[in-house]
Amino acid sequence: MTTKIHFVTPILMMLVVFNLNAVTKNQITCTGSTTVLPIAQATAEVFMNSHPDINISIRGGGSGVGVAALQNGTTDICNSSRPLKSKEISAAKAKGINPVSYAIANDAISIIVHKDNPLKDISIQQIKDIYTGKIKNWKVLGGPNLPIVVISRDVSSGTYEVFNEKVLAGAKVEGSAQLLASNNAVLSSVSNTPGAIGYVGLGYVNDSVKLISVNGIIPSEATVKNGSYILSRKLYMYTNGKAKGDVANYLGFIQSEKGQQIIQELGFINIK
User: pTM of the predicted model, to two decimals?
Assistant: First the structure.
């Protein structure tokens, strides 16, 4: 009887080991809000550095996209810049999904205009009148004789949902408004368009645009935490049931002192 001996080359052994490592790496998926996106990206990077056996993949698209992914069981974490609606929770439960919320940060929907705009303050009613088409020129508000370019988020955005609730009270955005898919898109459009007005999460505000106060209050850590800034909100991550294992550890890191410090450094406001 002849015995055949099979030799495995060093290169093949290396490939086998590499493939085994790739297969055994634990995966966490996060989907949803573009406001929460930089928080998820920054905290995931730090978390993965200390947990090399875990890979966290992150996708934006808006809170509505994240909610749909959670309902369909295609994401571990839904990133949302608003609380889930009762009808969304009911729809999830009908599919055997039990959404559980984790508050990860405080935020302020920040009203921004082109940096050359002399306006310093605006009221909630004036914002509503601009977005519903009643005010069409900055001269009505004491500004230059310049048409107002209205820039909004699209309807899949959680930021739009909160803006709609707190500012528009359900009224429709005027028809000529630009409806954009992300905070960065709004920021870019406002910075490059004289006469533009838009709104973004506080962490996105930079020197390319001008941040204006609302009802005399500028968004800040103090005014958001004490509720005096009217467009304050919390940012959330949702899981199916109470988070367990690697997902629980990642969420715990975000809510920890170190995670909250990262959030502060991004320009958002901690929950502590």
Answer: 0.87
